[in-house]
Design goal:
single chain; alpha+beta; Jelly Rolls; 2 domains; four-stranded antiparallel sheet; 29% helix
Length: 201
């Protein structure tokens, strides 16, 4: 069917404007006295309908071919959700020096995943808080990544796992922790919210 379609397109390209005008004039201006006027009108109407139908079919086939050929490819991400719930991390550094929220990964195999993702924000507008994200595997390897100046509004973060440079084996991961330390905050108390923690392929 594709071959017929391109053949029809090539024929349309070969017809110049003069040929089209002459064809339309023959349809509408055919005033031969030899023929019956009603029969001539009916034949003209059938020709016009055939022409319009043919053009409509060609347009539909061309549009379908174009959409199927050039439709954008949708990129999807496979997510392994660790905690879909909103987590509230309260910190009060008096006398504590750090606050830890830890997730047990139970020797989870993350070797086929490429990033850690979550939403995070702080409660106080005027505060200035940094957060340490830490992962540990069954072989006691621990690596961290720092998020500086946590925003006041919910913000999406995606950390490539290659940023945790001290982890050499991702097949048996034991824990994921979000840590707030006294030296990384402006105020001594506040709240950090973490939501929808997941790993992405």
């Amino acid at each position: 069917m594709t071959e017929y379609f391109f053949y029809a397109i090539s024929l349309l390209k070969e017809m110049d404007k003069k040929d089209i005008y002459e064809h339309l004039a023959k349809i509408y201006l055919d005033a031969s006295p030899k023929g019956n006027k009603s029969t001539t009108s009916r034949n003209n109407f059938l020709r016009l309908r055939f022409l319009v139908g043919g053009i409509a079919i060609l347009f539909f086939v061309f549009a379908t071919f174009f959409i199927l050929r050039y439709k954008p490819k949708v990129k999807t991400e496979v997510a392994l959700v660790i905690n879909p719930n909103l987590v509230r991390i309260n910190f009060h550094f008096d006398p504590a020096k750090k606050e830890v929220y830890s997730l047990d990964l139970d020797k989870l195999d993350l070797s086929k995943y490429r990033a850690l993702a979550f939403e995070i924000w702080r409660s106080q507008f005027e505060d200035n808080v940094s957060l340490r994200v830490e992962v540990t595997n069954a072989f006691k390897e621990t690596s961290e990544f720092y998020l500086k100046d946590i925003p006041h509004k919910p913000t999406f973060y995606k950390i490539p796992l290659v940023e945790f440079r001290k982890i050499s084996d991702w097949t048996e991961m034991t824990s994921l922790a979000f840590i707030i330390e006294e030296w990384n905050t402006k105020d001594k108390r506040g709240v950090i919210f973490v939501d929808n923690v997941r790993f992405l392929r």
